[in-house]
Design brief:
- Strands 9-10-8-7-6-5-4-1-13 form a 9-stranded mixed beta sheet, with helices on both faces.
- Helix 8 packs parallel to helix 9.
- With 447 residues, it is an alpha/beta fold.
- The radius of gyration is 21 Å and the shape is globular.
- The structure holds S-adenosylmethionine (SAM) and iron/sulfur cluster.
- The site of iron/sulfur cluster has 11 residues, from loops.
Amino acid sequence: MLKSELFAARVPRYTSYPTAPHFHPGVNQATYRQWLSALPVDLPLSLYLHIPFCDTLCWFCGCHTTVVNRYAPVREYCDFVVDEMALVATALGSKRPVRHIHWGGGSPTMLQPCDIDRLSGALARYFEIVPDAEFAVEVDPRGLSQECVNAFARAGLTRASIGVQDCDPAVQRAINRIQTREETAQAVAMLRAAGVKSINLDLLYGLPRQTLKSWKETLHFALSLDPDRLAVFGYAHMPSFKMHQTLIPDHLLPDIDTRLRQVELASQILIANGYVAVGLDHFAKPEDSMGKAVSSGTLARNFQGYTTDTASFLIGLGASAIGSLPQGYVQNASVVPKYRTALARGDLPVSKGIALSQQDRLRRYIIERLMCDLTVDLGDACERYCEEPEVLRDSLSRLAPLIMAGAVSVEGLVVRISPLWRVSARLVCAAFDTYLEPAQARHSISA
Ligand SMILES: C[S@@+](CC[C@H](N)C(=O)[O-])C[C@H]1O[C@@H](n2cnc3c(N)ncnc32)[C@H](O)[C@@H]1O
Ligand code: SF4
């Protein structure tokens, strides 16, 4: 099999295992209430809060978001999120300690300052936010106001994750995201001046009209802002799931070989400038907590991608938000009207989820370690989850074409992904995924 054919295979991003397409309505609000009430009282939680609104639509966007041209629905949505916090806190039965908070979207920075104050005030009312809690927010730098930055700073923001994508005007026109370099630089400066210590920049390769030359310029521009971390995502083009992506014609997209060269270029430039590679698609300064997590083998992966957050209880708040509990996963209704209707009835807005079997836990551990460390000791994994390595026999045989291609090696029970195949580690993970059906079109290509 050719390397480019392997890279073109469609596989999940493995931000969970089992992955979200396997969640089902059999896990409902009654299940969630029961799971919440069984959580040990003193174990710290992580919170994810989803703001599914944006001012304009980027044509590449794969996130759960809606464009609004009036603010009223956003304010009303905040009321419902506060209701959800109250219901979750009641189901938990006591105020639980929280170490990590992440607001994502959509664009949390389109919230008005009074709503940022209101949501962060409600979080502090229903949960015990520990004094050194990490608080990260996804930031759209376009039109970011000083008042918005001040409100997040008041709420205790410690890290901002800023969407940059690409700074070439031709690429920006082709994705309907016009963002000047000055706007991006100003957002970074405002956040730093407000005391936000850690800055992450999101970049995207594989975009329409993106050439190696323009991509190189984007990378150097990003470096000029001295970020602590960078996420270098490959554009996932799935127009059959995201209708608006049809606005990006296929013929404008770089081919697989160009995408691979773009990844290699990013790696070379970022590593030459002192960053360490984190998992498949992140880079961090060695002194950043994510850089340190790589060297200590404590990097984790959750719905926000790579994280230093190792908490086993993640509560998701807001439409489409996913929670990860020791018992399994739960997902809220994806569309805002359904989310609101459930809360208006006084119900937790869970629409689906999945309970984990012991084998799911074993496979989840293996996939997380492969995604984070690019290596896993299957013997050690089986011991942790009291399973016999025999249960992984089919998975090991599925690795054969990848071993032949040089993507992965297996010595005894230790699986190692070649650094040259880092970007496609999820192909190796897919061999351990017993839910995956062949040729699943709902996932993006691996490179
Ligand atoms: C919620 S957005 C970040 C905050 C803000 N909404 C913005 O765009 O600036 C999260 C990130 O997901 C990435 N993303 C969105 N759509 C994607 C796609 N189709 N494929 C790969 N990455 C994508 C982008 O890099 C984006 O910055
Ligand atoms: S990329 Fe960000 S700003 Fe653009 S539509 Fe998606 S969530 Fe909104």
